[in-house]
Amino acid sequence: MTAAGKHQVSRTETPRRSGRPGRAGIRDVAAAAGVSITTVSDALNGKGRLPDATRSHVREVAERLGYRPSAAARTLRTGKSGLIGLTVTTYGDEPFTFTEFAYFAEMARAATSAALARGYALVILPATSRHDVWSNVALDGTVVIDPSDQDPVVTELVRQGLPVVSDGRPAGALPVTAWVDNDHRAAVLDLLDHLAAAGARRIGLLTGTTTDTYTRLSTTAYLHWCERVGQDPVYESYPAHDPCAGAVAADRLLARPDRPDAVYGLFDPNGTDLLAAARRYGLRVPEDLLLVCCSESTVYAATEPPITTLSLKPRHIGTAVVQLLIDAIEGVEHDGPVEQVIPTELIVRTSSQRRPPRTTVSAPRSPSRD
Amino acid sequence: MTAAGKHQVSRTETPRRSGRPGRAGIRDVAAAAGVSITTVSDALNGKGRLPDATRSHVREVAERLGYRPSAAARTLRTGKSGLIGLTVTTYGDEPFTFTEFAYFAEMARAATSAALARGYALVILPATSRHDVWSNVALDGTVVIDPSDQDPVVTELVRQGLPVVSDGRPAGALPVTAWVDNDHRAAVLDLLDHLAAAGARRIGLLTGTTTDTYTRLSTTAYLHWCERVGQDPVYESYPAHDPCAGAVAADRLLARPDRPDAVYGLFDPNGTDLLAAARRYGLRVPEDLLLVCCSESTVYAATEPPITTLSLKPRHIGTAVVQLLIDAIEGVEHDGPVEQVIPTELIVRTSSQRRPPRTTVSAPRSPSRD
DNA sequence: CTGAAAGCGCTAACAA
DNA sequence: TTGTTAGCGCTTTCAG
C-alpha cells in the first residue's frame, strides 16, 4: 500500500520504529489502525470530516496502545504550548514575601482554576529567574504580578510579541496587553470614612517602605484624606518583606505621643501585630483603638476581638487576569477596555465599631461606658 | 564561504527566511555571524571546543539580533523540557484547600526556588486536571503532594517512565521514585508527652474526616498514645476543607461533658478556632486549657496568648522533594535511600505551658490539683 | 474523503 | 575545527 522505492533513498526498511522505546508514536497508531497518520491526527483532534466509524476506531486503537501525543512536537508545529507564565515578584532569593502569602495563594489558586478550565496550565516564574529558565519554556503569554516600572522581563516578553497581562496597573509606560487592579485610592478613602464614622478622631497608618504601586497609591490616598479632613498624618513605615519589622512598627505607632485612636494597616499581619501592641499599651479594641487591616486571611474572624479587614478580592483578580490573557492569546477581540477594576470589600467586624452589635455584655473590667 | 550550489536541490534561493516574522532563528544568526548553525548552537550552549573568539562573536551577533532559541524545538530534539509538574490535591474545583494555604505556599515557594536554582521551572497541575492538559505539557518529572492510594495520575506518569517524587509517603503500593515526609507518628507522640508534662490530664484531638495519610497517621498515633497512658480518647472530626466546620467542631469539642483540659488541633486554623471556643466557655488558656495546633502560620506568635505550634517544615520538604526529583531526572545515583524523613519542630509558646513564665497567676477555677 | 510529504527550529552524528 | 544532514513527532497543505 505504500509506494516503497520511488525516489526515497534512506527510508527503505524501517517501517515502524517508534521514537523512544515504550511510548507509542502517531505512526504506531496509524499502522495498528490501518490508516494514515493524517487520519489519526484528525480523528484524535476532531479536525477533518471522517466517518464516525473511522474516528472511534482510531481512538480505540490509540487508547489501547496508550498513545500520548508529544506536547513538544505539537508545540513546535502549532506554535502554541498551552502554557501561561505566572510571574511573581521576588524578595531576596524567594518568590513572593510572607506577607503576601494569603493574597498570592488565593490569586494563584483562582488563576490556576481559570486557566485549567480553558485548557491551559500555569508555570511559576519568579521575575528574577535566570534568563535561561525563561527562554527554556515556551509560553503563550504571561501574567505579571505587580510589575515595576520599566520591568525588563515584561519589556522583553512584549518585544517577543507575547501577550502580557498584569495584576496591578503597570507603573510608567509599561506596554502590557491588559491589566486588572483594584481602585486602591477609593478603597482607602472609603475605609477611612468608615473609621471616622465610627468615631475615630486621629487615624494612623501602618505602611511600607517599598515603592510598589499598591503601597504608593494607598499611602497617597491616606495623605489626601488627612489633608481633606484636616488631620495631621500619623504613620509608620517598615520594609514589608521583613516579618519581624511589622511588629516593631506597630509598637512604634502606638508608642507615639500623638497616638492615633484608629489604625489602618496595609499588610496582612498588621492586624495581629497591632492587636498585640494594643495589649501591651493596655488599649482596648475597639473602645480605645479602632483597627482595620488589609488581609485575605480568615483568622481575623476569630481573633479577640474580630478585626475588620479590607479584601482585595484576589480570586476575582486571578480569574480576570487569566481570562484576559487567554482571550488575547486566542485573539478574542474585546469591545470593552483592556483595563479591569475589581471592587474591594470591607468586611466589617467588631474592631472598627465603637458600639458593638451584641446587646448583652456583662460589664467588662472597664466601668466606663462612654 | 558557504558552498552554494553543490548538490542541494530545493533550497536554492531562500537563503534566510525565519520561521515567524520578527523572531530571529538560529539560521539567521548563523548567516549574520558568517558561520554554520552548528557553530551557533555549540557557541551558545557551550558545547564544542571552538575558539573563544568565535564563541563570543556568535554570542554577540545572537544578542544583537535578539535571538531566542525555541524551547519547543529544543525539547523535541533533546527530550528534556526543563519543566517539573507540581501536582496538588483538589477539593471541588479548586486546587488545595484553605487550611493548607500556609503549608502549601511555603512548600511551593521552596520548591520553586530549588527548581530554579537548577534551571527548572514548576508547572502547577491539579490532580484532577483534564486529561488533555496533562498530555499537553512536556514534563521531565513530577512532584505529587499527598497522593492517594492507587492515584491514577501517578500510575499513568510512572507508566510513561517519568520520575515521580511525592510529598508524603505514598499510600498503598504506589510506585513513586522517591518520597519525603515527616514522621507524623513521632511528632504527635512527642507533642502529647509535652502536653502531659505540662499537666494535661485529658487531651482532646481535633481531627479531620478525610482519609489522607497525614490525618490517618496522626489520629492513629493519638489513639495509641491514649491507650498507652490509659486515657479515653476525646476527639471531634470534621471535613478539613470546609473552613467553617472547624469552628463548629472546636466548639463541640469543648462543649462535651468529658471536656478535655488540653487539645491538639491537626489543622492550621484550629488554633484560633479553639481559642475562640475557649473564650465562649470562659476557659482561660493555658490555665484551664492547654492548646497546640499544627500550623506554619506566624499569627500564632501574636495571639493572646501565643499558641504552641507544630511545624512540618514545608520548606525543607519542598526543597528535598525537588532535589530528589531533579537527581532522578538527571540520572544522579543516590547511595542512600530514596526515602527522606524531615524532622518536625514544636514551637513552644504560652498556650502549652501550665506554669507560664510570669509569676503572678490568680488561682484558676479548678481547685483540685490531683 | 484519505494519504503522502513538507517542514516547525533545533541538536547531534557524521563528513569534509 | 567547521559545515552538512538527518531527523525529534507532530500538523497541515496539497494531491489523489
Structural summary, described in words:
Chain A has helices at 26-33, 37-45, 52-65, 71-78, 101-117, 131-136, 152-159, 184-197, 213-229, 245-255, 270-280, 314-329; strands at 83-88, 90-91, 94-95, 121-126, 141-145, 164-167, 178-182, 203-208, 234-238, 262-265, 290-294, 308-311, 339-342, 345-347. Chain A contains twelve helices and 14 strands. The model of chain A is unreliable at 1-19 and 359-370 (pLDDT under 50). The first copy, chain A, is elongated and about 85 Å long. With 370 residues, the first copy, chain A, is an alpha/beta fold. The first copy, chain A, starts with 25 loop residues before the first helix and ends in a 23-residue tail after the last strand. In chain A, helix 1 crosses helix 2 (37-45) and helix 2 crosses helix 3. At the A-B interface, helix 4, strand 3, helix 5, strand 4 and helix 6 of A face helix 4, strand 3, helix 5, strand 4 and helix 6 of B. Chain A binds a DNA duplex (16 and 16 nucleotides) through residues 1-3, 10, 18-20, 25-27, 35-39, 41-42, 45, 47-51, 54, 69-70, 72-79.
Provide the fold topology:
Two copies of one chain form a homodimer.
Chain A: H1 26-33, H2 37-45, H3 52-65, H4 71-78, E1 83-88, E2 90-91, E3 94-95, H5 101-117, E4 121-126, H6 131-136, E5 141-145, H7 152-159, E6 164-167, E7 178-182, H8 184-197, E8 203-208, H9 213-229, E9 234-238, H10 245-255, E10 262-265, H11 270-280, E11 290-294, E12 308-311, H12 314-329, E13 339-342, E14 345-347
Parallel strand pairs in A: 1-4, 1-5, 5-6, 6-7, 7-13, 8-9, 8-10, 10-11, 11-12
Antiparallel strand pairs in A: 2-3, 12-14
Helix pairs in contact in A: 1-2, 1-3, 2-3, 5-12, 8-9, 10-11
The structure holds a DNA duplex (16 and 16 nucleotides).
